[in-house]
Amino acid sequence: MAQPICRTVSDAVEVLDVIVGLDHRDEATRTASKYIPRGGYKQFLNANGLKGKRLGIVRNPFFMLENVSVLPQVFEHHFHTLWQGGAILVDNLEIANIDVIFSSSGEEAALEAEFKIFLNAYLKELVASPVRTLSDVIDFNNKFSHLEKIKEYGQDIVLGAEATNGINKKTLLKLASLSKNGFEKLMKEHKLDALVTPGSDISPVLAIGGFPGISVPAGYDNKGIPFGICFGGLKGSEPKLIEIAYSFEQATKIRKPPSFKP
User: Fold this and answer.
1) What mean pLDDT is predicted for residues 72-91?
2) 54 in helix, strand or coil?
3) What totals of helices (H) and strands (E) does the chain contain, helices first?
4) How does strand 213-220 pair with strand 88-90?
5) How confident is residue 11, by pLDDT bands cut at 50, 70 and 90?
6) Least confident of 22-31, 49-58, 214-223
7) Inter-axis angle of helices 238-252 and 9-19, nearest 10
8) What is the C-alpha separation between 259 and 39, in angstroms, rounded?
């Protein structure tokens, strides 16, 4: 799941208003464009946007992962802030197939296959470019491995993508089923406006179903590294997510400009 990285929610919404729309050369935008609200997204920058919103909390596994370095009390405080803003918290929920999504959903295989197909299509149409295919990109990285820092970062994703040969339809059907019977079912059964999770741990759940999410600064760990709180929702829920995220951001104002110190 890729997205713009911005300083504030309002900055992100400015970007969203620019990049959304129908592209006749991009089939995915045909469905997505029907969700664009008349008047754009800036109208949903509402400081009182939490009021009446139903927010779900799935503690297992999102607030129980070993690699979560943030203190539980930080998020308990944020839950209280959400409640104070008028949100209705629905706690201790479960996504029925969450273990499968994290272990064997096939998301990575689908990602790699789509990456190769669409990157090749993009590179092929460039007016001037030293690379025309993903294979060219790999060769370029190897040729300039020092500059591309291949030793430090590798290129496992592009190598995996290059090894694919089309998208497996069974994998796509599996991903659709996992979404329908997991995240989507939970959201609809409990009439939720958004699910609240720490960091980016929810990303695979949102990505496999094409669901939107927005992360807002939530604090800093003991090394001064920032971490976020994510609000994810069903397709077309961007207006609600913007209201929720903006309201939380304005109530907490956690972000600090980076110092750029080593």
Assistant:
1) 95
2) strand
3) 13, 5
4) unpaired
5) very high
6) 22-31
7) 160
8) 37
CA angle 33, 98, 204 (to 5 degrees): 40
**Run of H or E residues at 97:** none
Helices (H), 85-155: 98-104, 107-124, 134-143, 145-148, 150-153
CB-based contact 209:184 (threshold 8 Å): yes
Report pLDDT for 262. Answer: 64
Q: What is the mean pLDDT of residues 235-255?
A: 97
Establish whether the linkage from the previous residue to 61 is cis, with ω within 30° of 0. Answer: yes
Q: Which residue has the tokens 């990157």?
A: 119
Looking at the DSSP bridge assignments, the partners of residue 90 are 56
What one-character DSSP code corresponds to residue 62? T
**Average pLDDT over every residue of 69-97:** 91
Q: Which two tokens stand for residue 143?
A: 């040729």
Determine contact, residues 81/252, Cβ cutoff 8 Å: yes
Condensed to tens digits (0 to 9), the pLDDT of residues 122-144 reads 999 999 999 999 999 999 999 99
Strand partners, 196: 57, 231
Cβ distance 249 to 46 under 8 Å? Answer: no
